Protein 1
Amino acid sequence: MNDASPALENLLTETRAFPPSPEFAAQANVTADEYDEAVADRLGFWADRARGLLTWQTPFTTVLDDSRAPRYDWFTDGRLNAAYNAVDRHVEAGNGDRVAILWEGEDGSERRITYAELAAEVARAANAIAGLGIQTGDRVAIYLPMIPEAIVAMLACARIGAPHSVVFGGFSADALHSRILDAQARLVITADGGFRRGAASPLKPAVDDALAKGGTDVEHVLVVRRTGGDVAWTEGRDVWWDDVVPHAPAEHEPVWVEAEHPLFILYTSGTTGKPKGIFHTTGGYLTQCAYTHSAVFDLKPETDVYWCTADIGWVTGHSYVAYGPLVNGATQVVYEGTPDSPHKGRWWEIIQKYGVTIFYTAPTAIRTCMKWGEEIPGGFDLSSLRVLGSVGEPINPEAWMWYRRVIGGDRCPVVDTWWQTETGAIMISPLPGVTATKPGSAQVPLPGISARILDDAGEPVGDGQGGYLAITEPWPAMLRGIWGDERRYAETYWSRFPGRYFAGDGAKYDDDGDIWLLGRVDDVMNVSGHRLSTTEIESALVAHPWVAEAAVVGASDETTGQAVVAFVILRGGDEITDLPTGEDGGEAIVQTLRGHVGQVIGPIAKPRSILVVTELPKTRSGKIMRRLLRDVAENRAVGDVTTLADGGVMDLIQQGLAKG
Ligand code: PRX
C-alpha cells in the first residue's frame, strides 16, 4: 500500500467535524432522505434522476442491462443528445439570456456567452465539422487551451454523435500522436496557441509534429485563432475555425443517439506504459454528472456562479466544466490561465469580480496558495462563496482547514470529492447540507453508489480498518471500457475482486465508518492531482540512448502530493560518445533526461529529481522494488530488504546518494 499519503498520518488524530449550518441545511437541494430512497430501490433512484435531470427524445424503459457484465449498459433503449441537453433545451425553456460562460482570459480579456449564443455557436461548429466530413461515430481529437471554443468543440462533436478525445494541451507531440492513432481520429481541433504565465505558448506545432509522424487517419486540422502567432500551414488539410464556423448556419438538428452511444474517450495513465483510452457513453454519464453536480455543490442555476478550475484536458474538466454544469443550466466561470498570472491573487480577484458562489479546485493548488500566504486571498472580498470543493488527490487536514477558514470564511461547507476518470462522476463525498464534514475525509458514498473497503481476500473490513476501495454495484457514469481493448478492461478493473470494480486506491474506515482515501496502491502516481504512470515514465527514460535501466517512484511532496523521482542506470560501453563528463556532467545528464521526458510525455511528467545509480533493487523474479526506492526518495530508513536478489544494492544506492 502506498504509505506516502499525507492523510494517513493525521487519520488517527483527526476528530474535528463541521455540521452544516441550519440555514444551509434548510435550503439544500438534497436531504438525508435520498440515501434511504436509493437503498430502497437503487435502480429506481437512478431512473428517476435520469428522467428528471435530462430530456430524452425517446424515453427509456430498461434501466440497467447487466447481461454483458462487466460491461454494464444503462438506459439502453432511450435516445438523447448531450449537446441538446447541455444547451438547446435551456433556450427552449426561456433561459436563453442566462449567461452560460463567463470567460476570463489570462490577458484580462473577457467574454460573456449566454445559453442562446452558445446554442448558436455549437450549432455552427457542428455544421462546420460535418462539412469537414465528420459523421456520427467518427472520432475527433481536441487539443485546445481553456477558451470557450474548447467547450463549443466538445459539444459540437456530441451534437453529431462523434466521440471526442480531448488531449491536455500540456502533452507533447508524441503523446498526442499516440492518442490520435489509438482513437483513429479523423479530425483534430486545435489553436495557434494559448496564453500561459503572461506569454503566448504555441499549440499547433505539436499537432504538426504529431501528424508528421504518420500513420494517422486525420484528414483535417481545424485551427482556432487565439494568440495571433504565426503558424505553419498545410494547404488542403488545415482550416481556420474563423473561415468556416462563423459562416455556418446557426441551426443544426442534433443526432439523437442511443444512451450507450460513446460520448468521449479520455486517455489516462494505468500501470503499464500505454495510456488507457477510457470511454464513456451518453445517458448514464450525463445522468450522474448532472445529479452529482446539483447534489454535491448544491447548485441553484438561477443564482449561483460556479467555478471549477480544472482544464478540459482532464476528466474534471469534462464532467464539471463541459457537461455537468451546462446540463444543469448553470452560470460558470472559465479561466484560461494559471493562478499566479499576472499576480498570486488572480483566482481570488476572479471570485470577487464575478461573485463566484461555488468553487471547485485541487488540493495541490490549495497547498500552493497556503505557501504564498493568507494575506493574498485576504486582500479580496470572498464573501460570495458558499460551497467549496476539492478533487484529485487526498487533501491533508491542514490544507482542508486552511481552505475552510481562509477561503471559505469558516462558513462554507468543504466537500472532498473522490472519483476517477473511470468513474466518470463523483462517487464518494459529503453532501453539503447533510454531512458533518471532517477535514481530510471524502466520507460517504453518494446516494445510489455502493462502495466497500475490502481486505486482500475480498472480504469487507470493519470500522477502524483499512484495505482496498471497491465499487460493489454498477453506477450510471461508469466507464464502458478501454477503447479497443476489452480484455484489458476486464483484467484491470474486474479481476482483482471478481464482480466488483477495483479502483486502485487504498482506503480506511474511521471509527464512525467514514472513508479516508490513502492514495494509489498500484504503479500510478498522483502529481498535482494528475495521474502519471511509473512505467510510462520509465519507458520514456529507457528510450533515451544514455539510459540502460530506469525505475520511477512517486515520493511524497508537500505541495504536489507526490513528485516523480527517477533512478537511472546509464549505459556503459564505447557506443555512447556524447555523455557529458567533468564537473557539471552529472547535472547536464539530469537536465537532458528531464527534458527528454518532457518531450516524450509532456512537462507535467518531468521528474523532480533523477538519481544516477549503478544498481536497482530487484526481487529474485526481477521486479523492481519501488517500495525501497520510495524510502530512499523520501529520506526514510530503508524497509525490509530480505526479498532483494542482492541485499547490498540498497547500501550502494544510499552510499552513492550520500556522496552526491
Ligand atoms: O487516487 C485517486 C485520486 O485520483 C485518482 C483518479 O485520478 P484521475 O482519474 O486523474 O481523476 C482525478 C479527478 C477525478 C484516484 O484513483 N483522487 C481523486 N480524488 C480524490 C483522490 N484521492 C483522494 N481524495 C480525493 N478526493
Protein 2
Amino acid sequence: MNKDLKTHLSSLLNESITKISALHGGDISNAYRIETPNNGYFLKLNKALNAARMFQTEVYGLQLIRKTNTIKTPGVIACDTFQDSAFLLMEFIENKSPSPTDFKNLGHQLAQLHTCTSEYFGLDRDNFIGSLQQSNKPNTTWLEFYATERLLPQLELAKQKQLLSTDICPRVQEIKEALKPIFKDIKPALLHGDLWSGNYLISKDGVPYLIDPAIYYGHHETDIAMTKLFGGFNDSFYDAYNAHFTRDKNTFHRIEIYQLYYLLVHLNLFGRSYYGSVASILKKYF
Ligand code: ADP
C-alpha cells in the first residue's frame, strides 16, 4: 500500500499503524487488515470509476441492516476517496470457522432480518451486486420486480457481452407467464442480497455479522437461494431458519429461479464457465 495512504489513514484514525496485511477472499476490491497498538481495522480499496458509489451503497446497506437490530454488521469508520482510490474503512471482526451453534444463531437472526418489511419491493436507491449495477426501482408486485429489475437487466447484459444468444433468452412476457403460478402471496422482506459463504462472519465469541450486502426488499427465499448456490450452509442454519418460515410445493422451483439471477451475475462478471448452469435453468423454466 502506498505510504501517503498509510499516513492518511493513521491521521484519520488518530492512531499509529503498526502493521498492514493484504487479505484474500473478496472478489471485487483489494482488502487489508490494519493494526494499531490497540485496535484492528478492515480496509477495502478500489480504483474503479464507480468504486466510491459502490462503497457508499455498501455503507447504506450495512447501516440499514444494523438499524434493524436483528443481526450485526461491522461498524463503519470512513468511506471516502484518497488520490485515485475509493476506500472503505471499518471495524475488523476477529473471526473463526462457524460451529453448528453459530450456524443456528445465523439462521435465527437472518429470519429476524427477513421479518423487516416495506410497502414495496426494491429500495429507495440502486446499488451493486459485485461490481454490477443492481436496479431497485420500487414496485408493489414481486413478479414485476423480479422480471424487470432482476432477470431482464442481466439477460440483456449477457446478450450484449455475447455470453447468451437471443434465442435462449426469454422475453419479459414469457418470464412473467412462467413465474406467475409460483410467485404467490409474496411479501417484501429486507434481504442481505448476496448471501454466499464469504459474506458473513462469526466473531471469535460466536456473534454472526453480515458483510458486503446488496440489500433491497424482496422475497426472503432469495437469500436462501444464494446460500444454497455453492454447496449450502450447515444444516443447523436451515433448521433454525425454517422454524420461522413455511415452505410450499413451489419453494424448490423458486429457489432455482432466484439462483438464476445470481448465476447470470456470475456469467456477466466471470464469464463462460457459468453458461451451462444458466442455460439449464433457462431451458427448464422458459
Ligand atoms: P469484496 O467486496 O471485494 O468481495 P468483502 O467485503 O467480501 O470484499 O471482503 C473480503 C473478505 O474480507 C471477506 O470474505 C472476509 O473474509 C474479509 N472481511 C470483510 N470484512 C471484514 C471485517 N469487517 N473484518 C474482518 N474480515 C473482513
Protein 3
Amino acid sequence: MNRTWWKEAVIYQIYPRSFMDSNGDGIGDIKGITSRLDYLKYLGVDVLWLSPIYQSPNDDNGYDISDYQAIMEEFGTMADFDEMLSEAHKRGLRVVMDLVVNHTSDEHRWFMESRKSTENEYRDYYIWREGKDAKTPPNNWGSCFGGSAWQYDEQTAMYYLHLFSRKQPDLNWDNPKVRKEVFDMMTWWCDKGIDGFRMDVISMISKTKDMPDGPITDFYGDYSPYCVHGPNIHKYLQEMNEKVLSRYDIMTVGETPGVTTELAKQYAGEDTHELNMVFQFEHVDNHGKYGKWDAQKWQLTKLKQILNRWQVDLYGKAWNSLFWDNHDQPRAVSRFGDDRPRYRELSAKMLATCLHMMQGSPYIYQGEELGMTNYPFQSPEEFHDIESINAYQEWCLSGEVSHEDFWPCITARSRDNARTPVQWDDSAQAGFTTGTPWIAVNPNYKEINAKAETEDPDSVFHYYKKLIALRKANPIMVYGKYEPLMEDSEELFVYTRTLDDVKLLTVCNFTDRRISFSIPEEFVGKSCLIANMENDYSKKELTLRPYEAFVLI
Ligand code: GLC
Ligand code: CA
C-alpha cells in the first residue's frame, strides 16, 4: 500500500457560518477562522476542510453557488481568504475547499443565461426537458429536499432538473463546455495554493440520458443508477484527474452518497486515477418509518457489520474517510454516545477511540472535539435548514404524521444540530459573536466550551489532541491491517490492527452498563496506548464500566 500524507492526515471540518464571527454581525467569517488557527494548530490537526465560502444567495447555506471565484460577502473578501490561507500554511495547516459542481445556484450567471431561451449559448449547461404534458414533469424523480426534482420554467415552457432545492439547478456534465469551465475553475484555485477539494455529491454528476421513472424515496442513494454513479461518472472523474488533480500535490475526497465498497475501489482505488478517498454514509444512514427522520439508535451489531465491512473490503485497495458527524448529521455524542451529563465526556472519548483507531483518514467536525451536543429544539420555528423546514412541512403540516410522533424524529436528525455556533467560552453567545448569532447557541455552553476544555487536561479536547498525536507516532494506526473481533456482541466494539510485528487491540463499551470482557491472551499485560479511564490490564478478566474504552499495544 502506498504511503501518502493524506492517508496520515487528520482533517478538521469548518462550517464557516458557525465557526467564529469577527465583526459582530452574528455570522461566522474568514477573519474569524484566521483568528482561531492557533487553536486548531494546538489541537494538532493537519488539514482544514472549509464548507463553501463562495458567493451564494444561501438557499442551502452556500451549497448553492452563484460565483465560484468570489467570496460570499458575509464571509469577507478574497484578500481575507488569501491571508487565511497563508496564515494556515505558516502553521503547517493545509486547506481543502468544498467543490460544489453537481449544481450551481439559479442565480449563477450561467443559469440566468440558460433559462432565457432554448437557443442561448448556456442552454445546454443545465438539464432541460419537456414535461410529459403541461402539468406533469418529465419523470417522477424526487428532490433530496422534498417535492419533484423538476421545476417548470415559464420563459421557455420547459422543466429543469434540480436534485436538491429548486434554487440548485443541476449542471449538465455531458456538455464538454461545462467540464472545461469546472476544470478551469479548479485549476484557478489550485494555482492559488489550496491543498485539495472535498467534492459535494460527486457521485451524482452523471445522469442517465433518457431519464426513466424511478422509485421515489427520500434517500438519494435509491435513485441509482439513474443519477447516482451514472453512466459516465468514472470517465468524468478520470478526465478531471488527468486535467487538474494529477498536476498538483493535493488531497481529494468525494462525497459519494450510495457508494458500496465495490464502487469505492473504483472511485478511490490505489491506482484508478480518480479520487484519493470516498466519504460514504452507510454507517449513518439508519432509516425508519419516516425515512431518514428517525430517533432510533443503531443496533450495535448492525453498525459494526457496516464499519467492519468497509475496513476489511478496502484494505490495500482503496481509501476511506472516518467520521461520526458533519454539517449534515446530528452531533456524534448525542447520536452514537450518550449526552446525559454523567456520560457525555466518557462516551465522546469512547467514540473518538473507536473511530481514530480504524483505517482511513479521520474527520473531526467543529465542536466534536469538545463533545458538543444536539440542540434542545422547542418548536419548528427554530429550524433554519431548508431540509428540516421542508420535511416538517411535508410530513407534519400536510397532516401525514402528528407533531407528537414526528417531533422526536426530526429533532434527532435535523442538520441544524450541527450548525449551532462553536462554543468558545462561557461569555455571552459562547464567545462566538458579540452580536446576535444567526442561529441560536446551545444553552449548555457554560459547561461545554473550548476555553474550559483546553484548560482541563482530562477534557474531551485533550483526549482528541492525544489521539491525533498518537497517529503521528504510530504508523499502525494508519497502515495496520484491521480484524474485527466479537462481531456478535451487542455491547462491545472490539478489533485489532496489525503492522509487521506490532499488534494493537481496541475495546469500546457502547453501553451505559458494566460488561465483562476477557482480554485475548496475546494482549494480557500489554501496555495501554490510550484509555478514557483507568483499569488493570495485567488481569485477563475485566469488568468494563459504562462507555469505557482502551487500546492495548
Ligand atoms: C451535500 C452537502 C449538503 C448539501 C447538498 C447539496 O450533501 O453536504 O450540505 O445540502 O450536498 O449541495
Ligand atoms: Ca461576521
